[in-house]
């Protein structure tokens, strides 16, 4: 593993499971100091134990208006700067479009859209003229219609549009803004969803059969793309989407 991120300080939200956990491990392995956030202090302590050094955990509900500045300030206090932000925290939502409750829709957008905007604003303030990299984790669903996923897709589609505009606006300040759009990924959330279905094995076969690569993404696949965008190897890359979906949206 090369140390492409040696000396960089990166914030990862939603880091206590799945893609966020794998991303924190990958960035740390490439030399980064990592400030990780999540709502579960127990899992946060587990992650800190797994990484060992160059890591701090801040328990935070990112829908709290004060949380973004608290998190970014903690990164500066712990590591001296903010060089990167990975917006991974998200709330899943599945429902028939016509019956989706407005209260649930608002909750999804609070987590998946509004908190991401607030984290980006706080990161820009913390980066200042030093520049840095912002990576938003969106979804294949921002690019492909899937029944019952309209609300979730819309919340991620909003971040896709934001990524493009922020990339152009912030480029003169040396801040790159990109996104990684995962396909169906084998995370604890996926496993829990599958376990609640009448035919888990059959459903998984159906899901995999729709993916040209013939398998689900692993969290590490997504983490590798994030690490590239956080590194200086992507120094001339901004406003770009890396679709880590095994070819699903290329069909």
UniProtKB/TrEMBL annotation:
Residues 8-196 form the Ketoreductase domain. The lineage of its organism: Bacteria, Bacillati, Actinomycetota, Actinomycetes, Mycobacteriales. SMART domains: PKS_KR. CDD domains: SDR_c. Keywords: Oxidoreductase. Gene3D superfamilies: NAD(P)-binding Rossmann-like Domain. GO terms for molecular function: glucose 1-dehydrogenase [NAD(P)+] activity. The keyword Oxidoreductase applies. It is an enzyme of class 1 (oxidoreductase). Its EC number is 1.1.1.47. PANTHER family: OXIDOREDUCTASE, SHORT-CHAIN DEHYDROGENASE/REDUCTASE FAMILY (AFU_ORTHOLOGUE AFUA_5G02870), SHORT-CHAIN DEHYDROGENASE_REDUCTASE FAMILY PROTEIN. InterPro entries: KR_dom, NAD(P)-bd_dom_sf, Sc_DH/Rdtase_CS, SDR_fam. It comes from the Bacteria. The keyword Oxidoreductase applies. Belongs to the short-chain dehydrogenases/reductases (SDR) family. This is Glucose 1-dehydrogenase. Signal peptide: none annotated.
